[in-house]
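Q:
Just now I want nothing more than another pair of eyes on a protein record. Here is the record:
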Amino acid sequence: MTQIIGITDHGPLKTIHPLYQIFGVRLEVINFDNIINCDHKEHATDINDSIEDIGLICPMVLVKKDDKYIISDGCSRYNFIKNHANSSICYVAKNVDEEKFLQQMNKKVFRLHTEQKVIRSFEFLFQDDIVDHTAKCTYLFSEGVPKDKLLR
């Protein structure tokens, strides 16, 4: 079995950590036993190769349904990494706007990362095809920040 970069081993729990964890207020460690199996059967081989080479770039995007999670973005990643770990740090969207925003952000982050190696600025969230999604979720930039730390 291939050793994947970014996996921590805490006894029975092996967690894969994505390289980019932009919105911590929506990140949760999710055990794969709590994910409803993804119906997507094909593996995206370029994603598999990327995970083997540099680790998981983007968190999967999940939507909570009752006490389980449905994969909204990341079926190919899930189908590959579930053979190497039993949990991952994932985005858990609280509404449809967040779900769409996080999906689009992941696509953009993956593309930019493969072009630039490391993303050092997040101005891309306010440009091009993602700006409309960002506009609906601007509260994520300040959620969880103490009010006395926010700029006025």
Residues 96-116 form the longest helix (21 residues). The mean pLDDT is 87.
